[in-house]
Amino acid sequence: LDNLETGKRENLEHLRGDPRLTFVEGDVSDKDILKGLLEGRDAVFHFAAMVSVPLSVEMPEKCHRNNITAFSDLIIAMKDMDIPLIYASSAAVYGNRDEGLRHEDEIPLPMSPYGASKAINEIQAACAAKVWGLDPVGFRFFNVYGPRQDPFGPYASVIPRFCHALSTGRRPVIFGDGNQTRDFVYVRDLTSILLKMCEKAHMNRGRVFNLATGTSMSVNELLILISGIMGSFVTEERLPERAGDIKMSSADITLLTEAIGRPAFTDIGPALSVTAQWYRDNYRN
């Protein structure tokens, strides 16, 4: 289920004809669509949201509708169902902290409507676990990357922006001094972790886990790495830092490891090579 506001139908082309997939174009806030889709399911994975920090600053009301109200509608629709609900929270709930690893026990200090909406989602889910006995498990996604991420627009993520710029001979843009750090997790690794937790949702219901690798790098270091992989070295363009952007971001994944075992993460070099090749194939001049 996707309203395609930011997604693209062509991202599913490689799955055309696969009997395991049924795609419905619609909105998670449409209660009639939701009711029909939930019947007979074994689990629900909820990732629908306004995911851009800068856009949430510009459009806080829309962020509230998409991220908080829609999640409430989903929980209510599932309140009598005995199936797992795996949902996306975000590292944005932490806000700016001192250097060091972020741990789930820290009090949320979001710096944006987006981060605040995800902190509220966690409270909504914990409440649903207590009141209706639902099995929701949340994941604070750090910086997820991989093929098919949209590189366009002022709200695009850093890895697709860099890969697209270097594929097309444009100058990659860095906001601020580039020393801000991010914990990057490959989308295939993320998917594997979510599926493992789905099998253990009941014993972890109402909990929230960091989903990241536990290591981080600066945006400046990231650009050097991607430039080397792509063999394209273009002088970057520096712009002022954006409202709501976090300085340091790296995760403690102890709780996740205790719950499902130590995840096997793909090294960032090979994962970025696969990602960069997709942008070369699809956007190169």
Task: Tell me what the structure shows.
- The structure is a single chain.
- This protein has 285 residues and is of the alpha/beta class.
- The protein has one domain: NAD(P)-binding Rossmann-like Domain (Rossmann fold), CATH 3.40.50.720.
- Helices cover 39% and strands 13% of the residues.
- The chain has 9 helices and 10 strands.
- The strands form 4 sheets. It has a 4-stranded parallel β-sheet with strand order 1-2-3-8, sandwiched between helices. The protein has a two-stranded parallel sheet with strand order 4-7.
- α4 links the parallel β2 and β3.
- The radius of gyration is 19 Å and the shape is globular.
In short:
The protein is an alpha/beta fold and 285 residues long. The protein has nine helices and ten strands. It is globular.
Keywords:
alpha/beta, Rossmann fold, 4-stranded parallel beta sheet, two-stranded parallel ribbon, 13% strand
Read across the widest sheet, the strand sequence of neighbours is: 1-2-3-8
Characterize the overall form.
globular
Looking at the structure, the CATH topology is: Rossmann fold
Per DSSP E runs of 2 or more residues, the count of β-strands stands at 10
Approximate helicity band: 25-40%
Q: What gap, in angstroms, lies between the N and C termini? A: 33 Å
| Tally of distinct domains | 1
Largest sheet: 4 strands, parallel
Mean pLDDT, to the nearest integer, reads 95
Q: Give the C-alpha Rg.
A: 19 Å
Low-confidence stretches: none
Assign the structural class, choosing from mainly alpha, mainly beta, alpha/beta, alpha+beta, or little secondary structure.
alpha/beta
| Strand portion | 5-15%
CATH superfamily: NAD(P)-binding Rossmann-like Domain
Can you tell me the CATH class?
Answer: Alpha Beta
